[in-house]
């Protein structure tokens, strides 16, 4: 398990379980059909937890180009490794989304709504207004990266000994993504991750899905650019507040 493989596996699990919960809710004849937004946001939060648990010991569990870029700008990650991590994240996201299709293949066939099928793979705006949609993705990702930059390990105060939390340490990330989904996700579906959206969108374009909608390439740049801008703003503000660039 190298950092590169860990990012592939972790992101793959993230998308398998995250895309899987969307499929369970929106596709016809599933046990979870029409179970709603709470199920989707909870499923995505737990998907993040699983992905982080598996990959964190080996790669730090970025699972998101915005995280890699934000940490690099904040001086917490080597810029040289950013392209390699992003490549791994895209590979993992594409594998994960393909596996979702493999699991729910019969339900894709049973579903007539092409937009619902596409929603399993990628996000779309509730109200299409590109400036507002971009702001939504920027703010959602800002909250994600800014909070991550302030995560701390548990420690014994008297000796200042850092106590590793192991797999339990992934819980705060899950709660963070859950909160973003519940509070800010209703406008654009809270991609907050370029690989999570663009990788599966490409897979949707390639798969032989019956009666599928188009891939909405005109919107696809928003869940890529928005998270990157949000990550950069979060890292810059963190550096300013920590007086590291004053």
Task: Provide keyphrases for this structure.
two-stranded antiparallel ribbon, mainly alpha, 246 residues, 11 helices
Description:
- With 246 residues, the chain is mainly alpha-helical.
- It is 65% helix and 2% strand.
- A two-stranded antiparallel ribbon has the order 1-2.
- The longest helix is centred in the N-terminal third of the chain and has 24 residues, at 3-26.
- The termini are far apart.
- The mean pLDDT is 93.
Number of E-type strands: 2
Radius of gyration: 18 Å
Structural class: mainly alpha
Q: Residue share in helices?
A: 55-70%
Mean pLDDT score? 93
How many individual helices?
11
The helix/strand series, from N terminus to C terminus, equals HHHHHHHEEHHHH
| Spatial separation of the terminal alpha carbons | 40 Å
Strand content: under 5%
Strand neighbour order, sheet with most strands: 1-2
The major sheet is characterized as: 2 strands, antiparallel
Which descriptor suits the 3D outline? globular
Low-confidence stretches: none
